[in-house]
């Protein structure tokens, strides 16, 4: 049973009043050790109604018989924005058996940030905190997303409104312009009453909503505006002229005795909700009315576009997607209304509870379809979060007999938030989705089978917590399969390398059409299959000396799918021939000239030629158009046995020429 904040506060006050040095007893929310499956944190505005919907006791009223449950029996656990009983904003909570103790998220923004860090595994609330991975399942939020994105779905639960709680009769009716000027410091007196503006704490959804409603930002607030804990009239309305934004639902629930009381003392001292004169109106509209001694919402105020607001339960989008590997049936059962599926929170019993806490029930309770304007999506929240999505994977499709296999390579660009899954989708020629599948981050392929013949478009996205990558897309037709095989013999540079290709069709279909040989993105040759499905494709005789990895692709035909293979082609250096022309005799006082010609099939050799006598180099020269004439040094009298040596090049092997003799006289 949930202990009451009001009763624990009474105990604490009594201890202080009596001068006793007793510690305030620990208050669990829910009971210590009573861990539940679905943990929610965040908004002060909706904490009490979620506590009630969780089946706990709120302000002495037990809601055990109307506790919401998933089909599996799973229940929610709603942890307060501040510590029940003590009002401490520095207390910690533990939400799982054996889980970490972590700072209590105080406010809508804090709840969304804690949910974000539960997903990312980062430390909460900052780098000096603790990792809270999988410790939070949903965030309570009275505000809309703070940033763009689709990671979080804001599932509407009910309608609330932001009112302005004041103390002093001179503040009975206020305009939006007056509120704007009060909070930026331009207006300090209204109807002779000095105003003392207050504002809820940072991360409060009410704070952010109110500032937006009156056209201000945090940076534009006057320095004199005092920060208070949201929805606590006793602490805020301490003097005449006090002004503070307040959840109307919370005001109603506290004053009707449904929620723990933080406000009634201020009401006894003159605190009340001001009427707001909306733009274009001649008078003010009160947020509440009294029926049979109880406060009730004024529908016109709640539906006003400026001060009326939806309150949400924020859930990771992927966990509400029935096709996702992260789909959570328990969350779906409790929070989502779709088609014939009604959220547990939208049951008759639940909506009676919701109404009792000062909120207005709406037919869109639990909607997640973005075509409804009340449904919102937003990105991960918190400072320093890289919200970039992955780059698209590289997609390859292989179309088979009534099947389509997708294979992909992850992008080399790795985002800060890692890939969590891949989504593959198949659409028919009319654009209708034929099938979709979500796969683990480790997956690199998926096959759709049992397909009818026709044209299909397949897409793959790499997803992380921030969203989906651009689509990698491929369109192809389902036909019979073909199999391409290829061989290539080792070939010397200068000779024409050849790739012999055979394409075999299944189901007795003879392959016909075009075959292309590529290296990387460069086309080296093409050919057309003969009547037996074969072709030999000659390539350039000047391919680089190396081992080439070639792709051989069959383009397909009316009856067969495309197919491809790879083949290794080794290009070796050409074999050189060395011919020498030299005089038989030369005077020992003259220098003989030797002409050397180097040839090779299909190429003209380049490079250096050396003339040796034995192992000694006596002259060198450089080929030009495959020839060089080299002048020898003077030779001593006698017979000299010489030979030419071609040193080779990047495309031609070295070669030693035959011996020749020159007699020096």
Automatic annotation (TrEMBL):
GO molecular function, one term: hydrolase activity, acting on glycosyl bonds
Biased composition (Polar residues): 87-98
Domain Fibronectin type-III: 389-484
Region annotation Disordered: where it falls in the sequence: 87-113
Stored Pfam families: Big_3_5 (PF16640), fn3 (PF00041)
GO BP term, example: polysaccharide catabolic process
Recorded coiled-coil stretches: none
Alphabetically ordered keywords of this record: Carbohydrate metabolism, Glycosidase, Hydrolase, Polysaccharide degradation, Signal
Leader sequence segment: 1-28
Name of the protein this chain belongs to: Ig-like domain repeat protein
Source species of the chain: Streptomyces sp. R39
């Amino acid at each position: 049973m949930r202990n009451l904040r009001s009763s624990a506060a009474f105990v604490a006050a009594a201890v202080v009043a009596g001068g006793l040095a007793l510690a305030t007893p620990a208050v669990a929310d829910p009971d210590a050790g009573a861990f539940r499956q679905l943990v929610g944190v965040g908004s002060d505005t909706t904490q009490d109604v979620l506590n009630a919907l969780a089946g706990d006791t709120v302000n002495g009223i037990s809601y055990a018989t109307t506790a919401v449950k998933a089909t599996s029996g799973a229940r929610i656990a709603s942890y307060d924005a501040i510590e029940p009983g003590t009002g401490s904003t520095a207390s910690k909570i533990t939400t799982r058996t054996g889980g970490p103790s972590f700072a209590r998220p105080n406010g809508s923004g804090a709840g969304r940030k804690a949910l974000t860090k539960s997903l990312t595994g980062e430390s909460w609330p900052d780098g000096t905190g603790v990792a809270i991975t999988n410790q939070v399942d949903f965030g309570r939020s009275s505000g809309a997303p703070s940033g763009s994105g689709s990671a979080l779905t804001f599932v509407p639960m009910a309608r609330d409104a932001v009112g302005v709680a004041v103390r002093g009769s001179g503040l009975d009716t206020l305009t939006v312009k007056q509120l704007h000027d009060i909070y930026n410091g331009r207006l300090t007196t209204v109807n002779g009453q000095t105003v003392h503006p207050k504002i809820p704490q940072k991360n409060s959804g009410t704070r952010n909503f109110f500032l937006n409603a009156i056209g201000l930002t945090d940076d534009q607030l006057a320095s004199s505006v005092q920060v208070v804990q949201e929805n606590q009239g006793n602490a805020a309305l301490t003097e005449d002229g006090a002004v503070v934004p307040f959840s109307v639902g919370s005001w109603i629930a506290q004053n009707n005795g449904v929620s723990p009381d933080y406000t009634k003392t201020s009401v006894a001292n003159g605190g009340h909700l001001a009427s707001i004169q909306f733009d274009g109106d001649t008078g003010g509209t009160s947020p509440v009315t009294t029926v049979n001694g109880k406060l009730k919402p004024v529908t016109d105020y709640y539906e006003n576009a400026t001060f009326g607001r939806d309150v949400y339960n924020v859930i990771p989008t992927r966990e509400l997607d029935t096709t996702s590997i992260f789909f959570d049936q328990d969350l779906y059962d409790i929070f989502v209304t779709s088609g014939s599926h009604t959220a547990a929170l939208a049951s008759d019993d639940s909506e009676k509870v919701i109404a009792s806490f000062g909120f207005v029930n709406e037919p869109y309770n639990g909607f997640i379809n973005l075509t409804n304007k009340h449904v919102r999506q937003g990105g991960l929240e918190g400072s320093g979060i890289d919200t970039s999505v992955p780059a698209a994977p590289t997609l390859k499709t292989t179309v088979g007999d009534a099947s389509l296999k997708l294979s992909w390579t992850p992008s080399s660009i790795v985002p800060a938030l890692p890939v969590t899954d891949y989504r593959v989708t198949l659409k028919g020629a009319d654009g209708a989705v034929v099938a979709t599948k979500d796969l683990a981050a480790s997956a690199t392929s998926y096959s759709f089978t049992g397909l009818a013949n026709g044209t299909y478009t397949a897409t793959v996205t790499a997803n992380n917590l921030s969203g989906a990558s651009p689509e990698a897309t491929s369109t192809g037709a389902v036909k019979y399969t073909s199999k391409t095989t290829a061989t290539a013999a080792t070939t010397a540079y200068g000779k024409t390398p050849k790739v012999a290709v055979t394409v075999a069709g299944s189901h007795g279909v003879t392959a016909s059409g075009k075959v292309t040989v590529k290296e990387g993105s460069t086309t080296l040759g093409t050919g057309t299959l003969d009547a037996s499905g074969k072709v030999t494709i000659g390539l350039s005789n000047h391919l680089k000396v190396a081992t080439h990895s070639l792709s051989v692709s069959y383009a397909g035909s009316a009856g067969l799918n495309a197919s491809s293979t790879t083949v290794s082609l080794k290009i070796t250096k050409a074999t050189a021939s060395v011919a020498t022309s030299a005089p038989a005799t030369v005077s020992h006082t003259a220098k003989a000239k030797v002409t050397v010609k180097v040839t090779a099939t299909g190429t003209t050799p380049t490079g250096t030629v050396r003339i040796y006598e034995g192992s000694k180099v006596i002259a060198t020269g450089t080929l030009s158009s495959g020839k060089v004439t080299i002048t020898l040094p003077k030779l001593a009298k006698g017979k000299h046995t010489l030979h030419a040596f071609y040193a080779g090049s990047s495309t031609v092997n070295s070669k030693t020429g035959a011996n020749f003799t020159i007699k020096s006289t």
